[in-house]
Inverse folding.
């Protein structure tokens, strides 16, 4: 009998696979529920625009052909929108793939990647798989990235630092002043990737505009996605913006045709209909603050958020609370896997009626 486990690197054996939020269809099937809402994966509760669906339908007619591996039209439109050169952009199968490309391309055995311990769990998973190169730094007491501590964790073997801003799963952010102080402390030989998956939702005036800092800090890479405010989570398309010389090297590790033709067409349509983004951000902000007030009214401690989700803590067991919510047809995410405590929940901001249903279910359970 072959010892297959013995064939793999220790980092692979030790890795626990990513555990996504349960899909609606699975909860319906398991629990026999007719109506289920999902507030677990920070998705946009508003669906794709009609113009985006039409673009996908048009692109589907050519599915017998490979996609444009260079994504010429999308890169042209995206570079114009961002006011950068096309050669400064790399597209990925979600910004998740760009994170993976950065780590694979930059880090060799014995080198390391610095990130926040209580952040997007993919950083820990990917660095574990890639030569166990992760170096995690705890958050501050108010659930924000401890940028001075992250700068202090950099050594001569550090190749990459990942900053999630706003942070998932806390929703907190670091200010422009904090971020610039951090950049000054980071050696220029270390690449700083800023994961801005929730960028479009941010309304805080002191939030850093990373793209405008790249001239002074050429080691900066901004990562963004069409999965969140653009409602394309099911298509998986994101991108990174960095120095052209860096991006040229990163392209060498990118899989051919990594962004399919439907994703390219949909993302292009999103850019052509950018007008809806501020409206969506405003609706999210209103509902986020309304939901936060209701949760506080139920006794939860809610971390201030700039994203489309809330971190809420209670004194009880969030795992049990999540299970009770599931039986009422509400899917949320317990946060013990992120090391944020047994009483921590992450709740995505849904449509008003979805948020009301979630709060009503919590009220009923807690009473």
């Amino acid at each position: 009998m072959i010892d297959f486990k013995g064939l793999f690197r220790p980092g692979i054996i030790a890795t626990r696979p990513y555990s996504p939020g349960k899909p609606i269809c699975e909860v319906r099937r398991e629990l026999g529920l007719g109506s289920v809402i999902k507030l677990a994966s920070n998705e946009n509760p508003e669906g794709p625009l009609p113009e985006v669906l039409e673009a996908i339908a048009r692109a589907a007619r050519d599915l017998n052909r490979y996609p444009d591996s260079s994504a010429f039209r999308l890169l042209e439109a995206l570079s114009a929108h961002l006011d950068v050169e096309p050669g400064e952009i790399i597209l990925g199968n979600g910004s998740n793939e760009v994170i993976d490309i950065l780590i694979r391309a930059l880090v060799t055995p014995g080198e390391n990647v610095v990130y926040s311990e209580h952040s997007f769990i993919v950083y820990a998973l990917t660095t574990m798989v890639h030569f166990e190169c992760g170096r995690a730094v705890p958050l501050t007491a108010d659930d924000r990235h401890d940028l001075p501590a992250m700068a202090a964790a950099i050594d001569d073997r550090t190749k990459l630092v990942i900053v999630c801003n706003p942070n998932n799963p806390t929703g907190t952010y670091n200010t422009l002043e904090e971020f610039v102080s951090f950049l000054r402390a980071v050696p220029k030989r270390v690449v700083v990737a800023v994961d801005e998956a929730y960028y479009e939702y941010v309304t805080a005036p002191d939030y850093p505009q990373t793209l405008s800092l790249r001239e002074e800090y050429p080691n900066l890479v901004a990562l963004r996605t069409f999965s969140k405010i653009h409602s394309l989570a099911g298509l998986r398309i994101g991108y990174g913006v960095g120095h052209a010389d860096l991006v040229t090297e990163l392209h060498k590790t990118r899989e051919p045709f990594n962004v399919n033709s439907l994703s390219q067409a949909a993302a292009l349509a999103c850019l052509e209909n950018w007008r809806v983004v501020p409206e969506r951000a405003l609706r999210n902000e209103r509902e986020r603050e309304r939901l936060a007030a209701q949760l506080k009214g139920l006794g939860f401690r809610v971390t201030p958020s700039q994203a489309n989700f809330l971190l809420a803590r209670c004194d009880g067991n969030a795992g049990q609370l999540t299970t009770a919510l599931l039986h009422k047809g509400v899917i949320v995410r317990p946060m013990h896997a992120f090391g944020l405590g047994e009483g921590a929940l992450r709740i995505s901001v849904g449509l008003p009626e979805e948020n009301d249903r979630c709060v009503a279910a919590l009220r009923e359970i807690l009473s």
